[in-house]
Amino acid sequence: MTATSPSPVASGHGVAVSFQDLHRWYGSVHALDGLTIDIAPGELVALLGPSGCGKTTALRALGGLDEVDAGRILVDGRDITHVPANKRDMGIVFQAYSLFPNMTARDNVGYGLRLRGIDASTRRKRADEMLDLVGLRQQASRYPHQMSGGQQQRVALARALAIQPKVLLLDEPLSALDAKVRRQLREEIRRIQIMVGITTVFVTHDQEEALAMGDRVGVMSAGRLEQIAAPTELYDRPRTRFVAEFVGLTNRIEGVAGDDTVDLLGTRVPLLEGSAHSGRVVALVRPEALRLAPEAGTGARVLAVSFLGSLCRAQVALPSREIVVAQMSAAEATDLAPGTEVRVGVRPAPVFAIETDAT
């Protein structure tokens, strides 16, 4: 996604960011192992992975809060690898709101401008514009303790944007909030990011957040980038076993592979690139790729059904004693009470398969 028009609250179009073969060691731990990513102007890239995968190290390196041992970081074509943090023109929002408790929301937002010697009248105008942007103009005179967690994080976002940074860095900004507020705020952040047109790096361990917010999602493991792609491609066409297992839910179903397909529950299913392509394999199958139909005598039985609003997930015991999870609409699940015998089929969507001895 590239910004198509400047915003009155932005310093202009987004800038390109490039990580070039970054390496970072902490003793014997290789926190960044050749990380290379090119981020387009105005794009939001979410870095996703488990704790210790290197995603926060990458963000801190971009922000100048951590050094790299090798490689280069370019912003708008300029090498900033060894530029001090206060000269990099980055806006950063952390998990902790880090607001000054003795300052109002307006003063917190204007703090970075004050450090830059901006006069009081301009600071106030700019702070009010930013509070308008995040929907908190009416709370401008409130102190942090008078605001909810979600409101405080909005103030932190407004403060980061007030200095008109070239790049916005978001380090697990929603993880301290409850589920409902997280969903609301992630939509707000995405709306604001698109409106402002600012290049953004968003670090999270939450798959739903990454897939919902990112133009592209980069999955990291042990300091390496496993895959970076648009959310739909990442989910539907994982390129490595790690991505296939880490992103979303997967069933592990045994089958026989050959000729770039695998026989699963009586259906020939295409194999994704990088899969094991011959002999007995274990296919990683998404719950929504399984189809259930009530049918006596199959030997497969529904164990439990979980209601998830408009969706349902059914746990099914196959005749082989494997337990699989199928996902469907709530309407499709009306005849799937626990104990019901069902026929289990597989949609012919491509799957990732691994060798049986690799499990």
Would you write up a description of this structure?
This protein is α+β, with helices and mostly antiparallel strands and about 350 residues long. The protein is built from nine helices and 20 strands. The protein folds into two domains: about 15-235, Rossmann fold (3-Layer(aba) Sandwich), CATH 3.40.50.300; about 250-359, OB fold (Dihydrolipoamide Acetyltransferase, E2P). Helices cover about 25% and strands about 35% of the residues. The strands form five sheets. It has a six-stranded mixed β-sheet, sandwiched between helices. The longest helix is centred in the middle third of the chain and has 18 residues, at about 180-195.
What's the short version?
The chain has nine helices and 20 strands.
User: What's the story with the biggest beta sheet?
Assistant: 6 strands, mixed
CATH topology term of the largest domain: Rossmann fold
Number of domains: 2
At the first level of CATH, the class of the largest domain is Alpha Beta
Radius of gyration: 24 Å
CA(first)-CA(last) distance: 38 Å
Principal-axis shape: globular
CATH superfamily of the largest domain: P-loop containing nucleotide triphosphate hydrolases
Spatial ordering of strands, largest sheet:
6-7-8-3-9-10
The name of the CATH architecture of the largest domain is 3-Layer(aba) Sandwich
SS-derived structural category: alpha+beta
Approximate helicity band = 10-25%
Q: What is the helix tally?
A: 9
Question: Strand-residue fraction?
Answer: 25-35%
Average of per-residue pLDDT values? 91
* Sequence of secondary-structure elements: EEEHEEEHHHHEHEHEEHHEEEEEEEEEE
Number of strands: 20
Uncertain ranges: 1-12
